[in-house]
Design a protein that fits this description.
209 residues, alpha/beta, Rossmann fold, DNA polymerase, domain 1, 2 domains, six-stranded parallel beta sheet, 9 helices
Length: 209
């Protein structure tokens, strides 16, 4: 079955930005002590693709013993954005990413499905002149699996012809939930296919078709 549509995660797949956000989480939660900051960084790294709002809520629930309020989540989001936005705007692209987007062999519709806030994604992609490569760019607060299901519904292709390209278990879980195919960026256990970066994506698509 051919691959008709490609959906990309953002951090670690299109942009080399995972370390930027890791440092922002460490700085943001350092006020609670080093152990708490380490707890947050560890959770962040183990749950790539999960929205920052869910990570904030997890910290409050597990470390502070209560639910986060909407006001607290909004305030943390504002501080997190201030801590990392400048660095995100300067983040390099993953090797092969821009070259693939510019060539888009096969002319397939391309989408973004990320755990980052949708408005933030729009700002960053506009700044980096990337928006025009994509049919749509979706992010949080909508869960990733729901956004991927939305893409499948919008694109008109069967879910089995949609390829989710991601670097986390969250991306893989979203693909499984909607019945899409999955390609990892970074090592994934067998039987999942993966690439070290996007320099080999065009060749992978030729073989997959």
């Amino acid at each position: 079955m051919p691959i008709s549509v490609i959906v990309f995660d953002c951090d670690g797949v299109l942009l080399d930005s995972v370390d930027v956000k890791t440092r922002a989480f460490a700085a943001l939660f350092a006020e609670h002590g080093q152990e708490a900051a380490d707890f947050m960084v560890d959770f962040h790294l183990k749950h790539g693709g999960v929205s920052r709002y869910a990570k904030f809520a997890h910290f409050f629930r597990e470390r502070l013993g209560r639910e986060i309020t909407p006001e607290e989540s909004k305030a943390l989001d504002k501080r997190f954005t201030a801590a990392c936005l400048d660095a995100l705007l300067k983040a390099p692209m993953i090797p092969g990413a821009r070259e693939f987007l510019e060539a888009n062999p096969g002319g397939r519709p391309l989408y973004v499905c990320s755990g980052a806030p949708e408005l933030e994604l729009a700002f960053i992609f506009d700044h980096m002149d990337l928006t025009g490569y994509f049919k749509a760019i979706y992010g949080s607060p909508t869960p990733k699996a729901d956004n991927l299901a939305r893409i499948v519904a919008e694109c008109g292709a069967p879910a089995q012809e949609v390829l989710m390209v991601g670097d986390s278990g969250t991306d893989l879980d979203a693909a499984r939930k909607v019945g899409a195919r999955f390609l990892g960026v970074g090592e994934f256990p067998a039987p999942h296919h993966w690439l070290p970066d996007l320099t080999g994506l065009a060749a992978y698509l030729e073989q997959a078709d």
